[in-house]
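User:
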Amino acid sequence: MSNVKRIVLTGGPCAGKTTALVRIIEHFSNLGFKVFTVPEVPTMYSQGGWSYLTPNRNLYYEGELAILQTQLALEDSFMRLAETCTKPTFVVCDRGTLDISAYISPEMWIELCQKCGTTPNELKDRYDAVLHLVSAADGAEQYYTTATNSTRYEQANEEGLQLARDLDKKVNKSWTGHSHLRVINNHDDFDAKLNRVIMEISNVLGIPQPIEEERVYLVELTGELPECIESEITQTYLVADPGVEVRLRRRCWGGEVVNVHKTKKRVSRTEYLETERQVSNALYESLLQQADPYRSTIRKTRRSFIWKGQYFEIDFFHEPVDNLMVLQTKGVAEQESVNFPPFIKVLQDITGNKQYYNYNIALRR
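Assistant: Predicted structure:
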């Protein structure tokens, strides 16, 4: 992969991508970066006369194929432009190739990939990070509008809102397994959502970030979870220098496997620097030889879902402890309340409680 970072900005209808792109360009240009933006390809075709609501199946198929081919060509062209720059630069894609799969059948998606000489996993690996902005239809309904997009067919009524919520979840699911997928919650204050986008991109670019505590709770289930993404996680901590945390994680879901090597280093009392990279199965096995002998491997099942515009992860621990259920939600502003689902009972707020840090749970007793 090129040294130029390629970042996808995606999400459901009325998620705030257009405004976020303006903020990204403004913020990082002021920091000395050249920001290239790849336009949203499906909108280009819709505005040009094609519609994915057409009853003509051949026209529908050719349109989706054209969208994928154009997306690939545009991204590659902008990457070549970025690679000629002498100043720091990165590329932001207004939606990415995997978004297309949310609108078509799995069989058609595989066929389109084959026609373009690629695979879904190869497409996923094109991007350094994916930022999914949750649709305003989920948790911020008062801000949902179709006025900003003349090609949007979801209406601002309850039926349209539900359609938008379902589409938002399909888009999010299409990116499952990406090593740097981040879900950006809705907020009472839209600026908080945009600030979260800026923070996540800064993290990808290696710019030190303020130390923030994620909201974490001990919980128990009192009802059925909604549709969620379930994965099995194996987490091993490696030997590292003092003040540095190095984690090797394997995540398995639906027969697929992703391995991520992560380093987290405190650079000052208030800032840290975090780097992530995806590693092959062979390198994963090799890195296990560097496992910290003072820490056990953590094994847990994670279920992820969006509820009322907020993103939740519930971890069910199996080793080295069991009967431990931990919920965390990211990107909730300090002044905001967590929209706890009715099927979850909060037993204790453990935010900032080092006893429950994975790094300490792994410590051999």
